[in-house]
Amino acid sequence: MQYRNFYSFAPGLTPAVRFLLIGTVGAFFVQAVADHLADGVFTATFALSLAGLRHLELWQPATYLFLHGSLWHLILNMLGLFFFGPDTERTIGTRRFLTLYFVCGIMAGLGWVFISGTPLSYCVGASGAIFGVLGAFAALFPERPVTLLVFFVVPVTMRARTLALALGLISLLSLISQRGQIAYAAHLVGGIVGYLYGLTEAGAGRTPANFLNPRQWWNDLRWRWQRRKFKVLNTPGDYLENDVVEPPLPEEVDEVLAKISKWGLSRLSRRDREILDRASRRR
After folding, report:
1. Which terminus of the chain has fewer Cβ atoms in its 10 Å neighbourhood, N or C?
2. Domain span at residue 49?
């Protein structure tokens, strides 16, 4: 599949996306040359496998992300990173984006090992991490339209959240019905972890313990629902007569909105949220 309207998604590459694109493409060519010279020893060493983990080759859950089974496999994954990565990174920040990428990739790989891995099989590719980026993108921009060219011919437009759910469902059904060379378990696990990561604004300003806290997830979901009611009012006359809360200054509202645009909701302090709450009051 191919993506349209890429100019709206990535007017310029962000630092982490650029690093991952260059690093992954470079690693693929190193893999091709090394495997040709050493008869596949390079891939066997750095790909993810149950046998490797049993032998305490603990680098594999990270290094397998930079290896790919074919050039087409590499191109599809890098297209996904190119189109969905920059906006996600701009929203949550470079450090958080790298955390998202590697957490989703590692969890996806381990999910594949425990769900469908066998001692004689190995997993390569950044697909689990890319599904994680897509899941986070869908959580951050659920209503954004995405147009795909299915089979490079048929244009299909859907919301980002719908796309993520559809791909997740396809991965689940494929995991149940097929046991082939495609690591559907990695796709599914990576997408779920990425979506949850995105719902908490990719953990911005949080500790890992809070990211795993169900109460934190609930608070974020409730906050996202409440923010739909926000309507900035410019004059005190727009407030209820019996409301003693003074409206915020326009400068205060602009500062909070700029912070949301740059960092997302998770970077808001208690004072920022009070400003938005006061600005959202209306008749």
Report:
1. C
2. 2-203
Secondary structure (3-state) at 48 = strand
Are 193 and 247 contained in the same domain?
no
What's at 101, amino acid-wise? Answer: Y
199 shares a domain with 124 = yes
Nearest Cα neighbor of 267 from 96, 143, 104, 142 is: 96
- Minimum mean pLDDT range among 22-36, 181-195, 242-256: 242-256
Per-position b or e across 92-109, b if 16+ CB within 10 A of its CB = bbeebbbbbbbbbbbbbb
**Does one domain contain both 87 and 150?**
yes
CATH code of the domain in which 58 resides? 1.20.1540.10
7 in any annotated domain = yes
Q: For residue 221, tell me if it sits in a domain.
A: no
* Total of domains in the chain: 2
Same domain, 55 and 180: yes
Rounded-to-integer distance, Cα 170 and Cα 189, Å: 13
> How big is the chain, counted in residues?
283
All residues at 6 or more sequence positions from 228 whose CB lies less than 8 Å from its CB, including other chains: none
Q: What is the DSSP string of 117-181?
A: --TT-EE-SSHHHHHHHHHHHHHHSTT-EEEEEETTTEEEEEEHHHHHHHHHHHHHHHHHH--SS
Dihedral pair phi/psi, residue 191, rounded to 5°:
-65, -40
Q: Give the span between the Cα atoms of 148 and 248, in whole angstroms.
A: 43
Radius of gyration of the chain (CA): 22
198 and 267: one domain?
no
The tokens 């701009």 sit on which residue?
90
**Per-residue model confidence as pLDDT tens digits over 29-54:** 999 999 999 888 999 999 999 989 98
Q: Is residue 101 within 8 Å of residue 80, measured between CB atoms?
A: no
Residue 221 has pLDDT above 70, yes or no: no
